[in-house]
């Protein structure tokens, strides 16, 4: 089996809800990432075998073979195929897995894994409520599912509270973590650590190159003052990920493509793991998926230099740290979704772009990325910087 390599990894700077990227059609926003991957790598776009693109809310402007529309909006020739996938928050991380699997199997040589989500233009959950408008059907959770799990629906917000309770995490701990996310993201921005991964996007105010969600003046007091999402809970909008518009992508190639095209790899794919568990608590699965990935890779946790654990809610990475006794100084070293935003289907390749460049910036070797996903699923990807 051949190896799979990451040659380029890029993302747009995050746009806040109704912010800098609100005027961009999501297909056009995704096209900017595809164009950047081609321009930076210097490959002939006609040689791309496939584009695999994650998107969670596939409705409105993100509907109708959305990935194909992203290709059609780009400078790639119309001979390049594309497919849209939904593994909830892990959609574009799964796109990485599918792209790498295609390359490692020898079926394809050059594949783009990407993700796009405009949470301004296609609001979260808007594709789940058609039955409320037309009076037909009952939504995504059938009576069989409801009876099996004893719930009317699955809620990520409930899951976040359940994770916090199970791992003994109070609001103070979550708020401290949120503050650190902003501090790390602010420091990384000021140091220029995001420059290599960000694709400038033109707006009415010029090139958008800076993540809008970072609160450079964040304090524990300001975070603690935000109202909780439910009475008696610990989750607030301030210690949860931000609504975000964005696009991201990585170019994954085979050894043959490296050789024939004279490409220089940024990283090698070491392991691809996906597991699933309890859909009610939902967000805990990275705790169980990570040890499986490490066993398959033949690595110990202490050998991993940097971790990217998606900050969907502060309770998730904190539970992960506590359960695995991991080093917090290696986790989300440039901040996470609490500060930088969580553009749903784009977050997987977004985190990978940050992880790849952070490893190279800090002279580190191994990186591990994981995130919780709707339905109680988790992807884990381990890479080696080159």
TrEMBL record:
It comes from the Bacteria. Keywords: Acyltransferase, Transferase. Residues 5-255 form the Thiolase N-terminal domain. Residues 263-384 form the Thiolase C-terminal domain. One of its GO terms (molecular function) is acetyl-CoA C-acyltransferase activity. Coiled coil: none annotated. CDD domains: thiolase. The active site is at 89 (acyl-thioester intermediate), 342 (proton acceptor), 372 (proton acceptor). InterPro entries: Thiolase, Thiolase-like, Thiolase_C, Thiolase_CS, Thiolase_N. Pfam families: Thiolase_C, Thiolase_N. Belongs to the thiolase-like superfamily. Thiolase family. This is Acetyl-CoA C-acetyltransferase. The lineage of its organism: Bacteria, Pseudomonadati, Pseudomonadota, Alphaproteobacteria, Sphingomonadales.
